[in-house]
């Protein structure tokens, strides 16, 4: 319930602590899962002090229990173990400290862990985080590779040495983080996000040299899976060859069986690429030579044809025929012109013979009245009428005698 207070009537610290304790005392017992990070068993003490940590969210809480409660599971529970405890929240007013009072502790078995991982795997797969269409292709030749691995680990050495052996010019941006334990998840997530934020990083490799199911649990954490799914940079999972595949393998853009395999898949081998280039160059040379030889044969065949070898031969063969046709055409045209000339001469003679001028040449005359009308009958003229007489050599005037 709310507590009334003002700047003039503030609550003392002790009262606030007491009220918090009262509110917490009303809470019932709850089952809590976590990983034991600290374990304090003082000789002769009746109380055991534990620290439970949530690796996904980097949160810890203190747990106390009677010695007998812990002794029941002391053979199978130690620091680093994942456990489930039945505990009631308690508030220690003098220090203002929250803790859990455990009445039962149960270790989390491998089978139970695998069952929970299977449920998480199905849930994430249903969201589409493992879908093939989400996978990003790796660059052919990355200039800068981001590497997340344990400090001075065999995985780091395998990736660096094999990658540089395959392509000596490759560069790495390494982030050394814990790869197991309670601090692994948040630091691996942070390292992945840092490398993804760098524009120069072309691909990110998360490597670890295998381990037990419990050791690989950080790489099946939901927070890490979602962080990798959100990366814009391709991510390669190289967690080692274990039968129980961590969820990181499913969400990563490429899964490598070992760190060495990751180096082989991320970086091309300079020797192999040189041989491939040489083979392609030889193949290209053979193709060009074959093309040139084929074209040379075609050109030689074309040059050997009579029309190309002696291009004037066809013209020479046709020259006599053309000359014969020209002579024939010339003779035919001459005959036609001679015939036309003869016909024209005869036609001209007939025209001349029938023309009025020829008649006048024979002594005839043509009488025309003043209006130019030709006189054809004596009845057409009158006495004393003046007429114009036209003869071969000219014309003159005549008068009609009464």
Detailed description of the structure:
There is one protein chain. The protein has helices spanning 13-25, 67-71, 110-126, 154-166, 184-197, 222-229, 248-251, 259-266, 270-303, 306-309, 313-354, 356-361; strands at residues 30-40, 47-54, 59-66, 82-92, 97-107, 144-149, 171-176, 203-207, 235-238, 254-255, 366-368, 386-391, 394-399. The protein is an alpha/beta fold and 402 residues long. It is elongated, with a radius of gyration of 60 Å.
**Sheet with most strands: strand arrangement:** 1-2-3-5-4
Average pLDDT, all residues: 86
Strand content: 15-25%
Backbone shape: elongated
SSE string, helix = H, strand = E? HEEEHEEHEHEHEHEHEHHHHHEEE
What structural class results from the helix and strand content? alpha/beta
Task: Compute the number of strand runs.
Answer: 13
- The unreliable regions are none
> How many angstroms does the end-to-end distance come to?
171 Å
**What's the story with the biggest beta sheet?**
5 strands, mixed, barrel
Quaternary organisation of the protein chains: single chain
Number of continuous helical runs: 12
Radius of gyration: 60 Å
Q: Helix proportion of residues, in percent? A: 40-55%
Topology:
Layout: H1 13-25, E1 30-40, E2 47-54, E3 59-66, H2 67-71, E4 82-92, E5 97-107, H3 110-126, E6 144-149, H4 154-166, E7 171-176, H5 184-197, E8 203-207, H6 222-229, E9 235-238, H7 248-251, E10 254-255, H8 259-266, H9 270-303, H10 306-309, H11 313-354, H12 356-361, E11 366-368, E12 386-391, E13 394-399
Parallel strand pairs: 3-5, 6-7, 6-8, 8-9, 9-10
Antiparallel strand pairs: 1-2, 1-4, 2-3, 4-5, 11-12, 12-13
Helix pairs in contact: 4-8, 5-6
């Amino acid at each position: 319930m709310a507590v009334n207070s003002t700047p003039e009537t503030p609550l003392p610290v002790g009262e606030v602590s007491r009220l918090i304790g009262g509110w917490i005392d009303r809470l019932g017992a709850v089952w809590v899962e976590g990983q034991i990070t600290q374990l304090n068993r003082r000789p002769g003490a009746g109380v055991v002090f534990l620290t439970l940590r949530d690796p996904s969210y980097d949160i810890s809480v203190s747990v106390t229990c009677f010695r007998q409660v812990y002794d029941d599971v002391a053979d199978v529970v130690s620091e680093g173990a994942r456990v489930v405890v039945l505990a009631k929240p308690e508030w220690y007013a003098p220090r203002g400290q929250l803790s859990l009072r455990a009445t039962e502790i149960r270790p989390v078995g491998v089978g139970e862990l695998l069952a929970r991982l299977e449920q998480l795997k199905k849930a994430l797969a249903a969201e589409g985080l493992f879908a093939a269409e989400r996978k990003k292709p790796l660059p052919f030749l990355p200039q800068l590779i981001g590497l997340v691995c344990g400090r001075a680990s065999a995985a780091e050495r395998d990736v660096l040495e094999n990658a540089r052996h395959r392509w000596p010019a490759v560069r790495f941006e390494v982030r050394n983080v814990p790869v197991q334990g309670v601090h692994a998840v948040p630091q691996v997530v942070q390292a992945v996000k840092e490398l993804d934020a760098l524009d120069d990083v072309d691909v990110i490799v998360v490597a670890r040299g295998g381990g037990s199911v419990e050791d690989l649990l950080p790489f099946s954490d939901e927070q890490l899976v979602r962080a990798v799914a959100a990366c814009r940079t391709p991510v390669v999972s190289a967690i080692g060859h274990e039968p129980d595949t961590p969820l990181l393998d499913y969400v990563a853009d490429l899964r490598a069986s070992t760190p060495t395999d990751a180096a082989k898949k991320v970086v091309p081998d300079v020797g192999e690429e040189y041989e491939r280039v040489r083979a392609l160059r030889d193949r290209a040379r053979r193709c060009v030579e074959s093309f040139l030889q084929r074209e040379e044969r075609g050109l030689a065949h074309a040059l050997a044809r009579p029309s190309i070898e002696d291009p004037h031969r066809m013209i020479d063969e046709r020259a006599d025929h053309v000359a014969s046709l020209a002579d024939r055409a010339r003779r035919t045209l001459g005959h036609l012109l001679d015939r036309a000339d003869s016909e024209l001469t005869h036609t001209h003679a007939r025209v001349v013979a029938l023309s009025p001028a020829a008649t006048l040449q024979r002594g005839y005359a043509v009488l025309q009245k003043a209006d130019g009308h030709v006189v054809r009958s004596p009845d057409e003229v009158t006495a004393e009428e003046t007429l114009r007489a036209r003869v071969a050599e000219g014309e003159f005037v005549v008068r009609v005698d009464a």
